[in-house]
Amino acid sequence: MSKLTLAFSPRASERLGQIAAHLSEQSLSNAFVIDYLNQFELWLNKVLLEFPDSGVPMPQFGADIRKICYKKIQFCLSRDGRAN
Fold first, then answer.
1. Which residues make beta-bridge pairs with 66?
2. Residue 4: pLDDT above 80?
3. If DSSP codes are grouped into helix, strand and coil, which group holds residue 33?
4. Where does 1-84 show beta strands of DSSP type E?
5. Which of 8-12, 41-45, 72-76 has the largest mean confidence?
6. 21 vs 70, which has greater pLDDT?
7. Which of 5, 17, 13 is nearest to 78 (CA)?
């Protein structure tokens, strides 16, 4: 079985930057923001490794794209790392 690799599209990377900026604007420390994003990435890797078909299919965004939620934040994912 091939190993899955987590790859953020440019849009997802931009969205994570917006989330980080929003958290910073809420007077949260940089350490908190970094820890939050690191915990998200760890959680996402764990979920996708254990349950690679997690989330809701989003065919309107392309084949094999799924939506997954983390602490009320929604992300669209592609299993092959394509940017959509």
1. 57, 77
2. no
3. helix
4. 56-57, 65-70, 73-78
5. 41-45
6. 21
7. 5
